[in-house]
Design brief:
Oligomer: single chain
Shape: globular
Helix content: 10-25%
Strand order of the largest sheet: 1-5-4-3-2
Number of domains: 1
Largest sheet: 5 strands, mixed
C-alpha cells in the first residue's frame, strides 16, 4: 500500500493554476498522485527533505508538486520555479 502523508497548507501559484485550468484538469488530479507516492517525471523525488513530483498535464505542459520536509505546506508550481531548487 502506498505511503500517504499530510500536505499541510496548499498553495497553487498563478502560473500553475493557469496551466492546470487550460488542460481541463484540477489541482486534486496531481495532489492525489503526489500523496500516493507517484512522483511522475521527477528525477529526484526527495530534495533537501522535500517531496517533489512532476507531472505532465493533458495539455502537455508540466507542473510540479512540492511538499516541505516538515509537511506544513505543499505548493503546486511550474517545474522551473525556485521552490523546487534546494536552498
Amino acid at each position: 500500500m502506498p505511503e500517504h502523508f499530510r500536505l499541510g497548507e496548499l498553495i497553487v501559484t498563478d502560473e500553475a493554476a493557469e496551466v492546470i485550468a487550460d488542460s481541463g484538469q484540477k489541482p486534486t488530479d496531481f495532489l492525489l498522485r503526489h500523496m500516493e507516492g507517484d512522483c511522475g517525471y521527477a528525477k529526484e523525488p526527495v530534495v533537501d527533505g522535500r517531496r517533489v513530483s512532476v507531472y505532465k498535464t493533458l495539455g502537455g505542459k508540466m507542473v510540479a508538486v512540492v511538499t516541505e520536509a516538515d509537511l506544513r505546506k505543499t505548493t503546486i508550481c511550474l517545474p522551473d520555479d525556485s521552490r523546487i531548487s534546494p536552498g
